[in-house]
Specification:
Blueprint lengths: L2 E2 L3 E5 L4 E6 L11 H15 L6 E6 L13 H6 L2 H19 L5 E5 L3 E2 L1 H8 L2 E5 L3 E3 L13 H9 L1 H10 L3 E2 H7 L4 E3 L4 H13 L5 H9 L6 H19 L5 H12 L4 H16 L2 H24 L8 E4 L3 H12 L4 E4 L3 H20 L5 H9 L1 E4 L10 E4 L5 H12 L7 E4 L6 H4 L9 E6 L8 E6 L5 H13 L3 E6 L6 H17 L4 H11 L5 H8 L1 H14 L1 H4 L6 H7 L13 E4 L5 E4 L3 H6 L11 H21 L6 H12 L8 H8 L1 H10 L11 H8 L8
Helix pairs in contact: 1-3, 3-12, 4-5, 5-6, 6-10, 6-11, 10-11, 11-12, 13-19, 13-28, 14-15, 15-16, 20-27, 21-27, 23-25, 29-30, 30-31
The chain binds nicotinamide-adenine-dinucleotide (NAD).
Length: 716
């Protein structure tokens, strides 16, 4: 051993071939934290002074190669002054440059995942051997930045500018066959053969069969394009990427600009270009939001695992109701391997639930994600039922019948008498208090909320709601089941609407108030979509269901009369009265007709304005800024209330709940992160401009205190 650190070790064999092994102590994966980077620098320095070195292999002792830079260190990095951040990046560049300048051939033996900084190390080597099971890529744009350790310079030189733009802007993890096809790796072998194959490549160089000098020269030189070629490549890439990324996510377009400039520069200048663009992104608000979200996601997953630690897994589940939600729960459970009984009182509902699940399984087969045999097995794991026959063997039940307190209470009491004493009973209610629903149960300790989002197979969030009498064991089992279904559970305390709907309904209330002032809902939708929401509020209400929203609104008004009760009839009440229930019956704010694929397509129909006319009580001129403020202020204040009242335990959980549950724009990082970035004082000043609209627009006393003291929800 010629170097032995805590993350990097170097040994040289009798033939003079060194192996640099990455093996970060105390961690299950290798990542480029400061320790690893510094040790790699030392190791390379040692290698520079080895006499008669014949070749160097970069390998990993773990299942992964390197998962990337240590994102927990990003926040500190991004806070550095520009010059200091530039020095840090230059330091990393100097290490990778040293590797690519070593006096002998170098090979990366990619046994497992190599992403971000790990991929940039791979790119600094002369050759790359990849395990057939491994994946490689540069996912930095997903965090609002782009590769900063030479990736934007080396990748285009290796695989061509157009491919590199696709790899970097898309941020995908590439499978070995795609990586080989694009020329990113020289060989693909089984994982167990990666090191041996890397050694073989070095032997080929030593035998004069491969010329690594020629390869280095080629990859260092500026790339040669005619202006027309360059224009054709970059104009088309810009068109595709720009349309996909949208104006709120600047990193992909910045990456294209850097690549375009860098390919015509020599290596040193191109690396400088990369640094300049990187600093601009790293210092911007979007990188801050997206990095915070990444860290929050890790935090909530860890928290969930703690909750579920002592739970025995759910082996057999059941769902009551085969409607939109019940059918979705059954599909998701079966597709992730937990068999489930789906009970309804109407045979036609069961048929519909099964056929919807079947459609989803077929889609998976068509996309090559599932074999026909596996889809068939999963489909058979959904057992339709009209009676409680097998319920005594069930570990957990999800109740997903209509949103009506009386019906829910009676169904819950009935099913409780059919299941084992230790079975867990949960409700997928959207708004009704769990403590209230538990009132007539014999074992309220075994009952909690398990709130899925629509469509269940797509939306990552499950709110697990703790009622007054819910036991830790019930929470543990429900969290474990949500995880087994591939979902991200967040445990919240009980109140009407819990976290997500409690925050969503004030947002809808903001919309209804504007409708009363004569706003055009199409303009409001377009404005909010431009602001970053996946759909505007009118369209969202149609998707949720006007009837569902109407009933939920009543529960919310009863729970929080001081701010959620409204006088007179609003737009949702009016549509409910007209039985325009939204997408489900083809008419709501918009009308719906099936498109070529049979999915409901939204159509604007003039008649709606006349139908909504009775709810308009005044006429206001609303600018885009007014619309955004009037929608966002009530949502943000209600999120703060949920945190202040301990409905949700942390800012990270609140923000992730909104992002995973209702598609809050990720570039803003969630409601509380948005408040931090705007500054609480600026937010309170803005809210005060709209104080005439009522209590939903009134910041809490604690918010004002925090604003005075310059406090934030995420700390410094
Ligand atoms: N639709 C959404 O977007 C959404 C999102 C989250 C939560 N939820 C909640 O999920 C629940 C179900 O909503 P949905 O949209 O699936 O409703 P839905 O009307 O599509 O389905 C309800 C189903 O329950 C069945 N049912 C009624 N009484 C029953 C009983 N005693 N036993 C078994 N089945 C019975 C009905 O036949 C129907 O098939 C509600 O509490 C709702 O608030 C809905």
């Amino acid at each position: 051993m010629i170097f032995e650190g805590q993350a990097v070790k170097v040994a040289v064999d009798d033939a003079g071939v060194a192996t640099v092994t990455l093996d970060l102590v105390g961690e299950s994966v290798n990542k480029f934290n400061s320790l690893t980077l510094n040790e790699l620098a030392e190791a390379v320095n040692v290698l520079k002074h080895v006499d008669d070195l014949q070749g160097v292999i970069f390998a990993s002792a773990k299942d992964v190669f390197v998962v990337g830079a240590d994102i927990t260190e990003f926040t500190t990095w991004f806070k550095l002054e520009d010059d200091d951040l530039s020095d840090k990046l230059r330091h990393a560049h100097s290490i990778f440059n040293d590797i690519s300048n070593l006096c002998c051939p170098t090979v990366a033996a990619i046994n497992g995942i190599a992403l971000g900084g790990g991929m940039e190390l791979v790119l600094a080597c002369d050759y790359r051997v990849m395990a057939d099971s491994a994946k490689i890529g540069l996912p930095e744009t997903q965090l609002g930045i782009y590769p900063g350790w030479g990736g934007t310079v080396r990748l285009p030189r290796l695989i061509g500018a157009d491919n590199a733009c696709e790899w970097i802007c898309g941020g995908a993890q590439k499978r070995s066959e795609d990586a080989f096809k694009d020329g990113a790796v020289d060989a693909v072998v089984p994982a167990a053969k990666v090191n041996e194959s890397a050694r073989h490549l070095i032997q080929q160089v030593l035998d004069g069969k491969l010329d690594y000098h020629a390869r280095r020269d080629e990859l260092r030189a500026p790339m040669v394009f005619t202006p027309i070629e360059k224009m054709m490549i970059f104009e088309s890439v810009r068109g595709v990427v720009g349309a996909k990324a949208g104006k709120h996510y600047p990193a992909p377009m910045a990456a294209i600009k850097t690549i375009e400039k860098g390919i015509s520069q020599d290596m040193e200048k191109a690396l400088d270009t990369e640094i300049k663009g990187f600093i601009k992104l790293a210092k911007g608000p979007v990188a801050k939001s997206l990095v915070t979200l990444f860290l929050s996601d890790q935090q909530i997953k860890k928290t969930a695992s703690k909750y579920a630690k002592n739970a025995t897994p759910v082996k057999q589940a059941a769902v009551l109701g085969a409607g939109i939600m019940g059918g979705g729960v059954a599909y998701q459970s079966a597709s992730k391997g937990t068999p489930i009984i789906m009970k309804d009182i109407r045979p036609e509902a069961l048929e519909l639930g099964l056929s919807e699940a079947n459609k989803l399984f077929n889609g998976q087969v068509e996309r090559g994600r599932l074999t026909t045999a596996k889809a068939f097995k999963a489909m058979n794991a959904i057992v339709p039922a009209l009676s409680y026959g097998e319920f005594e063997h069930v570990d957990l039940v999800v109740e997903a019948v209509v949103e009506n307190v009386k019906i829910k209470k009676s169904v819950l009491a009935e099913v409780e008498s059919k299941i084992a004493d230790d079975a867990i009973l949960t409700s997928n209610t959207s708004t009704i208090s769990i403590t209230e629903l538990a009132k007539d149960l014999k074992r309220p300790e075994n009952f909690c909320g398990m709130h899925f989002f629509n469509p269940v197979h797509r939306m990552p969030l499950v709110e697990v709601i703790r009622g007054e009498k819910t036991s830790d064991a019930a929470i543990a089992k429900t969290v474990a089941y949500a995880q087994a279904m591939g979902k991200t559970p967040i445990v919240v305390n009980d109140c009407p609407g819990f976290l997500v709907n409690r925050v969503l309904f004030p947002y809808f209330a903001g919309f209804s108030l504007m409708m009363q002032e004569g706003a055009d809902f199409q303009v409001v939708d377009k404005t909010m979509e431009k602001f970053g929401w996946p759909m505007g509020p009118a369209y969202l209400l149609d998707v949720v269901g006007i009837d569902t929203a109407y009933h939920a609104d009543q529960v919310m008004a009863e729970g929080f009369p001081d701010r959620m009760k409204h006088e007179g009839s609003n737009a949702v009440d009016r549509l409910f009265e007209l039985e325009r229930f939204g997408q489900k019956n083809g008419k709501g704010f918009y009308s719906y007709a099936p498109d070529r694929k049979g999915k409901p397509k939204k159509i604007f129909n003039d008649e709606i304005n006349a139908l909504l006319a009775p709810v308009v009580t005044s006429q206001s001129e609303l600018t885009e800024d007014d619309i955004v403020a009037r929608m966002m202020i009530p949502l943000c204040i209600e999120t703060v209330r949920c945190l202040e009242e301990n409905i949700v335990a942390s800012a990270a959980e609140a923000d992730m709940g909104l992002i995973y549950g209702i598609g809050f724009p990720p570039y803003l990082g969630g409601a509380l992160h948005y408040l931090d970035q705007m500054g609480l004082q600026a937010f309170c000043d803005l809210a005060d401009k709209y104080s005439h609209l009522g209590k939903l627009y009134e910041p809490t006393a604690k918010m004002r205190d925090m604003a005075k003291n310059n406090n934030t929800y995420y700390g410094a």
